[in-house]
């Protein structure tokens, strides 16, 4: 599984511009210019993607899988009640579509649901549809998941081993932020 060999972070009270400068400086000090690949994982916040575009323009951008799941669960819980069997049954195929890189189909399912809802639910759902639409190109998880499976089975190629070591989520840094904030 993915292993973080070094962890670094920056913190500031100088807003996004200050954070952008500090983060870029930290990345340069840690070898950004020598990196063969750069991956930016985020929760979907537009300001993070703007930062990545500005300072890490060649980086691959990936939506944190767990935030994608969380947004689908929010829809399921709103429709059927939190933790209900109906919510679990409704969301299961959509979660699988996300993992299978079938984001367009998942978004279409959400869009087809919209006319059947009350106005307030339609507005919430539209927010989720826009979230997924804005991040659709950043939701390519299937290759990483398949690579991890190949590693577990002992049949992975060198390329799959590299892919298997890429994180699907931003949990490591979020945990660090939480500790720092507390």
Overview of this protein structure:
The chain has nine helices and two strands. Helix 2 (46-55) links the parallel strand 1 and strand 2 (60-63). The protein is globular. The chain is mainly α. The chain has helices at residues 15-29, 46-55, 65-80, 85-99, 103-113, 119-135, 142-153, 158-164, 171-181, and strands at 39-42, 60-63. Helix 3 packs antiparallel against helix 6 (119-135). The mean pLDDT is 92. Strands 1-2 form a two-stranded parallel sheet.
Task: Fill in the keyword field for this structure.
two-stranded parallel sheet
SSE topology sketch:
Blueprint: H1 15-29, E1 39-42, H2 46-55, E2 60-63, H3 65-80, H4 85-99, H5 103-113, H6 119-135, H7 142-153, H8 158-164, H9 171-181
Parallel strand pairs: 1-2
Q: H/E order of the elements?
A: HEHEHHHHHHH
Strand ordering within the main sheet: 1-2
Please compute the radius of gyration using only Cα atoms.
Answer: 18 Å
What's the helix count? 9
Number of strands: 2
* Assembly state (oligomeric): single chain
Largest sheet: 2 strands, parallel
Low-confidence stretches: none
What would a concise description of this structure say?
By secondary structure, this protein is mainly α. 63% of the residues lie in helices and 4% in strands.
């Amino acid at each position: 599984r993915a292993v973080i060999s070094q962890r670094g972070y920056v913190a500031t009270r100088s807003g996004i511009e200050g954070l952008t400068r500090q983060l870029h400086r930290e990345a340069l000090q840690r070898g950004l210019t020598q990196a063969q690949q750069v991956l930016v994982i985020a929760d979907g916040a537009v300001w993070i993607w703007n930062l990545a575009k500005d300072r890490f323009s060649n980086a691959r951008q990936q939506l944190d899988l767990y935030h994608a799941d969380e947004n689908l669960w929010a829809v399921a819980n709103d429709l059927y009640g939190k933790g209900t069997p109906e919510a679990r049954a409704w969301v299961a195929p959509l979660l699988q579509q996300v993992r299978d890189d079938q984001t367009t189909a998942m978004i279409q399912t959400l869009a087809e649901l919209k006319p059947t809802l009350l106005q307030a639910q339609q507005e919430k759902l539209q927010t989720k549809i826009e979230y997924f639409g804005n991040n659709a190109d950043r939701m390519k998880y299937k290759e990483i998941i398949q690579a991890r499976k190949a590693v577990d089975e002992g049949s992975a190629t060198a390329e799959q081993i590299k892919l298997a070591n890429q994180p699907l989520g931003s949990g490591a840094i979020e945990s660090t932020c939480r500790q720092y904030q507390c």
